[in-house]
Amino acid sequence: MKVSEIAELLRGNPAGDAERQIQGVAALETAGPTELAYVESLRALGPAAASRAGCLLVPEGVSLPGHTTIAVPHPKLALIRAAEALHPASSPPPGIHPTAVVARDAQVAPDCSVGANVVIESGATVGAGTRLCPGVFLGMGVRVGEHCTLHPRVTVYPGSQIGDRVILHAGVVIGSDGFGYVFAEGRQVKFPQLGKIVIEDDVEIGSNTTLDRGSLGATVIGRGTKIDNLVQIAHNVKIGRHCIIVSQTGISGSTEVGDYVVMAGQVGIGEHVRIEDRVVIGGQAGVLPGKIVRSGSIIWGTPSRPMSEFKKTLARLARLDALAEKVKALAQQVEKRSP
Amino acid sequence: MKVSEIAELLRGNPAGDAERQIQGVAALETAGPTELAYVESLRALGPAAASRAGCLLVPEGVSLPGHTTIAVPHPKLALIRAAEALHPASSPPPGIHPTAVVARDAQVAPDCSVGANVVIESGATVGAGTRLCPGVFLGMGVRVGEHCTLHPRVTVYPGSQIGDRVILHAGVVIGSDGFGYVFAEGRQVKFPQLGKIVIEDDVEIGSNTTLDRGSLGATVIGRGTKIDNLVQIAHNVKIGRHCIIVSQTGISGSTEVGDYVVMAGQVGIGEHVRIEDRVVIGGQAGVLPGKIVRSGSIIWGTPSRPMSEFKKTLARLARLDALAEKVKALAQQVEKRSP
Amino acid sequence: MKVSEIAELLRGNPAGDAERQIQGVAALETAGPTELAYVESLRALGPAAASRAGCLLVPEGVSLPGHTTIAVPHPKLALIRAAEALHPASSPPPGIHPTAVVARDAQVAPDCSVGANVVIESGATVGAGTRLCPGVFLGMGVRVGEHCTLHPRVTVYPGSQIGDRVILHAGVVIGSDGFGYVFAEGRQVKFPQLGKIVIEDDVEIGSNTTLDRGSLGATVIGRGTKIDNLVQIAHNVKIGRHCIIVSQTGISGSTEVGDYVVMAGQVGIGEHVRIEDRVVIGGQAGVLPGKIVRSGSIIWGTPSRPMSEFKKTLARLARLDALAEKVKALAQQVEKRSP
């Protein structure tokens, strides 16, 4: 694409060589003369000036003499749009690979791509334009929506429901038994795990993440929520819409999470917690069972506290030695003056 | 089943409409007129009174006028028994799927169900009534006992031993190489990982959990122990009987764990630790290498301490600001009075 | 092998019955009369004296009367060498299993072993002597070097590059999409994940570990680095040579790690961190985003600090109660003396 064509696509303002040909997107530091890069903010103007990129997406009002640029309101978002045009996703031809094992009464839309060694059990349905990569397993009665991509070796237990445009990365497990036992007569007796799991539209889930189905009720992942690799979602958890859950976070049974919540990596959430909308949780934080975290809170630490308070405690801790010294000096002073 | 039949099965005491037909179990909040739910304790009497469940399992001595109930000593346990009767586990027909690859000298009991794309290598044995779901891999010489369920894509490395009635969820890896190296001549030299792994009877292991085999000795998971999703068990670890190990916990090499131990989520245990019987470990706690945790202890924090002590430290921390203020005031007071 | 032959292989100094036949290696505590064990240091002399091992590898200068021994400079390393001779790795016969699905234009070296249900997509290449166990998936254009072992169900996304002598354990995912979104118009918009991933020679990666490819640049795992089970490596991470990364550690996007770095279990590293050579990080430590950790540092805690400083803080914390008591007493003393 020409720079002028990209500018038009992005409704941006070009400057420099509008006829230049651009073949792909790249990082600011490594982009070459046929590549497009973006300048996130004014802080990146130094690397931007030194960049060899054929074209730079810059914030409106920024000029970079000697570079071909396109000024846009949100350069990173503009790069995403440009990348979709420059690197269209390759989709495999539709059809069912001869090694796939598809139950006679499963319903697979005719334009689906079903890879080698895929197994689709009885009563499962797969919507239009969905791609099942090699080794995917769909259990009895599973429903997968339209235009989904299930990467290799994704396992979907019987009865699970997956919406439209869902992306599941390799090794994801959807709908396994929750972890519930009653200790009786000297042993752990398994509680029934008969519930279901619903993954709503536009969810993306990272590699080897595991999500259990409900025990009696349902586990629900809300529309547009994005979950990273190696995350654990326990039974009966309800997660709202457009949340971000970073890698290795674990959410215990029956916890409810609102919309637009962000959890950093390795966060642990106890059982029966309620996390309201727009909460932000710092990395490795631990939220104790039964807690309610109010809308918009920013929390950190184990047990989790408001971020500002926790930081104050950390600062105080760093000065604990000084405090101890002060008390010691004070004691001596008092001692000296005793009659 | 009629309410009267369920009451008989549970040896419970029915009240209300004993002829009512019950078709399944459900949660108290969502159960309908043909469903059975349970009331865990007196604290749940409010939701119980509002429940639309066709029948409620209640603690002995509790009456709920207007509801059909069955009084039992342990309602949650009773629900488990009832669920087994109302939702009998569906087992697939025995037989070996034509796409399964089974070594000629492997021994698979005739009533096993072996799914699509299962691979069973030379010398492996599979006991009566065991179900291998699609994509399971059993390496050379693996032994799997009777009435086990190995969910899709479970991988069992050569030589591993699995007892009876074991449940392994999707993506579990049994018997991979332990993580041991000797640093020599500027590089990490791999220590031999030649040992074995034994999973005893009635163990259940969650999705994508990994268990390494012993380096020279054995890794052992004791009878009746339950392990959640994404847990890591390192080489030579010995875990006792009827333990509960919650998701994302990691246990380092050569650590020994007693019977009836409970570890909450994201716990980390160092190498060569000894955890005695009935220890309880709080979420995200870290036990340092070489420690001995005495029988019955309840511990928390990193480094882990007795729970009560750790909570006291947390409370003290929360008052650290006040302490610093007090010292400051004291210093001023002393200063003022100086002659 | 005779003891004399093993001594010759190890260039060690035998004492006792040099004609004795040794069939394998074992742990000091469990070794029998035909097995070889090692005595790591003088601290193990007690168990060594009690050992029933047919032969013991001991540090130079150590004599164990009544035992057959071989004295070597580094007994543990010597055991590794002996184990390689006594337990030669069994390699399956070369060939492609009839159930494997190999693209016509994929290049697989003739002496490779390709197991059942392996899928190799178009343009992929596999070097000499490499073993692909059942269910391995290699995406389009993947390059795997020579003498690698990919255990069952390893998934390699399109375009990933893997060096020579690499070992990937069951369920490893190489090259999945990084976790990057821009929040715009009320939803999370996926940032392009178009980069690549390079796994250099002699790397070993544990079961169910996940490694994302770069977003625009590359993710790189340096030569000789060893990664344990269930570790998460995010997009654009660069890891140096001969590092040790223990189980359940997570490294966030664009972080750079030097050579010979050691991370204990469950460590969390934020984004854009720089960890220089030979840094050691204690278990469960958390390194905040953007930090630089200087060469040779030993750090621990969240947020991570120098180990010695963090230990001092812990010790001070343990005496916090005593400090508070002291302040209380001091206040009373001051009060009493007021005029």
* Structural Rg of chain A: 27 Å
Mean pLDDT of chain A: 95
Largest interface comes to: A-B, 58 and 63 residues
Strand order of the largest sheet of chain A: 6-9-12-15-18-23-26-29-32-35-38-39
**Which homologous superfamily in CATH is the superfamily of the largest domain in chain A?**
Hexapeptide repeat proteins
Unreliable stretches of chain A (pLDDT < 50, length at least 5) are none
Q: Count of helical segments of chain A?
A: 5
What would you say the CATH architecture of the largest domain in chain A is?
3 Solenoid
Q: Which outline of chain A best applies?
A: flat
Distance between the termini of chain A: 91 Å
The CATH topology of the largest domain in chain A turns out to be UDP N-Acetylglucosamine Acyltransferase, domain 1
Q: Main sheet of chain A?
A: 12 strands, mixed
Number of beta strands of chain A: 39
| CATH class category name of the largest domain in chain A | Mainly Beta
Query: Based on the structure, what is the oligomeric state of the protein chains?
Result: homotrimer
Structural class call of chain A reads alpha/beta
What percentage of the residues of chain A does DSSP assign to strands (E)?
25-35%
Helix fraction of chain A by DSSP (H/I, runs of at least 4) = 10-25%
The structural domain count of chain A equals 2
Q: How would you characterize the overall build of this protein?
A:
3 copies of one chain form a homotrimer. The first copy, chain A, is an alpha/beta fold and 339 residues long. Chain A has 2 domains: 3-86, 3-Layer(aba) Sandwich (Udp-n-acetylmuramoylalanyl-d-glutamate--2,6- Diaminopimelate Ligase, Chain: A, domain 1); 95-309, Hexapeptide repeat proteins (UDP N-Acetylglucosamine Acyltransferase, domain 1, 3 Solenoid), CATH 2.160.10. Chain A contains 5 helices and 39 strands. Chain A has a 12-stranded mixed beta sheet with strand order 6-9-12-15-18-23-26-29-32-35-38-39. In chain A, strands 7-10-13-16-19-24-27-30-33-36 form a 10-stranded parallel beta sheet, with no helix packed on it. In chain A, strand 20 (181-184) and strand 21 (187-190) form a beta hairpin. The longest helix of chain A has 18 residues, at 320-337. Chains in contact: A-B, A-C, B-C. Chains A and C meet through strand 2, helix 3, helix 4 and helix 5 of A and strand 20, strand 21, helix 4 and helix 5 of C.
